[in-house]
Amino acid sequence: MSESPQLVRIVIASFLEPHHVDRIRAVDPRLDVVYEPQLLPRPRFAADHTGYPHERAEHDEQRWLSLLAEAEVLFDFDRSHLEDLPERAPSLRWIQATSAGIGQLVARHRYPERMPETVFTTARGVHAIPLAEYSLMSILVFRRKFPEMLVDQEQRRWEPFASTDLRGRTLAVVGMGSIGREVARVASAFGMRNTGVRRSAADIEPASLHLEALYTFDELHDALRGAEHLILAVPHTPETEGMIGEAELALLAPGAIVVNVARGAVVDEAALIKALESGHVAGAALDVFEEEPLPPDSPFWAMPNVFVCSHSAGTSDRENERIMDIFCENLRRYLVGEPLLNVLDTDKMY
Prior knowledge:
5-stranded parallel sheet
């Protein structure tokens, strides 16, 4: 008599719609999928993986700890036990994140040293479409003078004006991962002249990335010189921290637009504020900040040439569907021993 196949225990650590849970279960009968939403924070909006502040009752906490102790696979990080996750989940072999930028979190908690048998996979690519749309929307809003239109409408003032269009305008995209590539693709549809910056440019044809030129990080200043628009889409690593400061902003064309969908630490915020106040940077659309939530006394809130977005530009109501595409394919690969998609390089931090 043959033995029953060993079940793989998957614990879902953040809210998912029931049909997505069913989709996970349908991957393979060897999966033991545990989803107990009453133990998790309630979502504030579609595809919210953080949820409202949540504290479990004692019996619920004991139930949750027992699930962690038996988990082989975790869907999303357990935000209630980030500090002691290696000790609480000794059988854990794989965490599928719901974010692309998990390198800093993993490094901060020393997971590679504390749980060396665990693989981390990211949601790289999931947010490319909404972030590219946000980036081009922001540029268009500034260039087509949409804020001025709203003021005129509010004041019932009929005042003709001239704006500008994007065809032939220059754009520097710093970070040519999935987000940067999608930004360049969309920008090229507007006829923009794109240059890109990435860690390595060896053996890459710029045109294949919808670029006129491709530079390395060491050549950043060459890429920024005279650019009318700058979009930041790099991961936060020691190499990229503070990479855009006073000198870099000064290289941009007067009246440039800056969009940051990377991480706040990539930009020297004091230098950016100075450039915005002087007008050298005409406008900035910022989805991310050095400190989040953005403090109420931050100058950014009151600056008329700044759009503040609460780190939500990449969140779409279709996000979980796209994450499921990655997770379900990775589950299939995990069960047959194939390499997983989007594995985090814990040295490079992306």
